[in-house]
Every structure is written in C-alpha cells, then in structure tokens.
C-alpha cells in the first residue's frame, strides 16, 4: 500500500512528489528500510497558517522509542524542500505489513525477512 496525494491536499502534485522522494531518505533504524516503503506515512498535508508540511505518520509499534531519531532524519531529508514541517504521530489505523509497498517488500526480502 502506498500513500497517494489526497484530492483536497493543498500541497500540490509536484511538491507532493518532491516531499515523497525526500522522505525515502528517512530510514527506520530497526529495519533499515525507508519510511515511505515501509508504509509509515499515512498522509501529507499543508498548514497554510504556519506555512508548514504536516506529516501524518505512524510507527511499526506504539512503544517504539525512536521518534526522535526519525524526526531528526526527517528534518535532514526535508532541508531545502520545505521550510517547516510537523509530524503528527497517529496510531489508527495501526501499522501492519500490508502497508509495505512492493519496493519495500523487495528490500525486506533482500535483508532476509519473509513477509
């Protein structure tokens, strides 16, 4: 499953794709796969009031202690792409392996994971 630009998004198609590609540089430290292909990004939006990207994102488990690492990597990946961003951590629906993209499944297989 891959997130797609919602029709009502104010982000714009070109910018949406640029952000999506930049977020592929953010690697889940436990699995070694990027957060896009793991299916951790649920939605992207734009906050006009604060001129900031809003990333609706989850984790593989609610107890994951790596939010700071992922936020830091996200800041590095989005440097020069957007001026500001905020991660909205969401837990519903819960993440599951069905959210991993076909590319993510190939990466997981290459690392020896069976899904």
From TrEMBL:
SUPFAM superfamilies: Fe-S cluster assembly (FSCA) domain-like. InterPro entries: Fe-S_Maturation_MIP18 (IPR052339), FSCA_dom_sf (IPR034904), MIP18-like (IPR002744). Pfam families: FeS_assembly_P. Residues 17-74 form the MIP18 family-like domain. This is Metal-sulfur cluster assembly factor.
């Amino acid at each position: 499953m891959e997130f797609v630009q919602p029709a009502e998004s104010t982000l714009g198609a070109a910018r949406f794709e640029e952000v999506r590609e930049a977020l592929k540089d953010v690697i889940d430290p436990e699995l070694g796969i990027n957060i896009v292909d793991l299916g951790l990004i649920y939605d992207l939006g734009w906050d006009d009031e604060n001129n900031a990207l809003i990333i609706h994102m989850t984790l593989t488990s609610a107890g994951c202690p790596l939010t700071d690492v992922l936020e830091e990597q996200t800041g590095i990946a989005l440097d020069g792409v957007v001026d500001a961003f905020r991660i909205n951590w969401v837990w519903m629906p819960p993440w599951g392996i069905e959210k991993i993209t076909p590319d993510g499944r190939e990466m997981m297989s290459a690392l020896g994971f069976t899904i």
